């Protein structure tokens, strides 16, 4: 992304000269959306970027992938335990396992809800 004018603008007193540039590649559609948002805010694209740069929360995608894999592993384990419990319905151990599964289910539900709230909070912040 390059916003350059044919003649340099005069330097405003007290404000540092902006010498750093970023070259960003995007599709025409992405560019149009970005320009429309900047225009709607009454800003140039550069001003829009500067105004919003401190408000961006970057998610660690690898961390999210790892979390999804862990949750999937827990799900597979719970399925195996549930299958065992259904196979051995008349045993005392089965009742105990089912009670413990309920505790695990509540803990996993709480974990998912708190991570969802944290994730949404990061997106909004």
Keywords:
about 120 residues; mainly alpha; single chain; about 0% strand
Structure description:
This protein is mainly α and 125 residues long. Helix content is 65%, strand content 0%. The chain folds into 2 domains: 19-56, no CATH class; 61-124. It has 4 helices and no strands. Helix 3 (61-87) runs antiparallel to helix 4 (92-124). The longest helix has 33 residues, at 92-124. The two termini are 25 Å apart.
Briefly, what is this?
The protein is built from 4 helices and no strands.
What sequence of helices (H) and strands (E) makes up the elements? HHHH
Distance between the termini: 25 Å
Major sheet summary line: none
Shape designation: rod-shaped
Q: Give a count of the beta strands, DSSP E runs of length 2 or more.
A: 0
- The radius of gyration computed from the alpha-carbon positions, rounded to a whole number of angstroms, is 26 Å
Name the average pLDDT: 78
Q: How many structural domains can be distinguished in the coordinates? A: 2
Protein structure class: mainly alpha
Q: How many alpha or pi helices?
A: 4
Strand content: under 5%
**Low-confidence region ranges:** none
Q: Percent of residues in helical segments? A: 55-70%
Question: Which SSEs are present, and which pair or pack?
Answer:
Elements: H1 28-40, H2 45-52, H3 61-87, H4 92-124
């Amino acid at each position: 992304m390059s916003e350059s004018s044919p003649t340099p603008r005069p330097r405003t007193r007290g404000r540092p000269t902006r010498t750093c540039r970023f070259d960003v590649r995007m599709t025409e559609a992405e560019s149009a959306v970005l320009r429309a948002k900047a225009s709607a805010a009454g800003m140039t694209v550069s001003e829009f970027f500067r105004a919003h740069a401190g408000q961006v929360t970057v998610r660690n995608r690898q961390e999210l992938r790892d979390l999804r894999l862990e949750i999937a592993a827990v799900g597979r384990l719970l399925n195996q335990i549930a299958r065992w419990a259904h196979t051995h319905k008349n045993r005392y151990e089965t009742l105990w396992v089912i009670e413990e599964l309920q505790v695990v289910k509540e803990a996993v539900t709480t974990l998912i809800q708190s991570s969802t709230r944290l994730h949404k909070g990061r997106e909004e912040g």
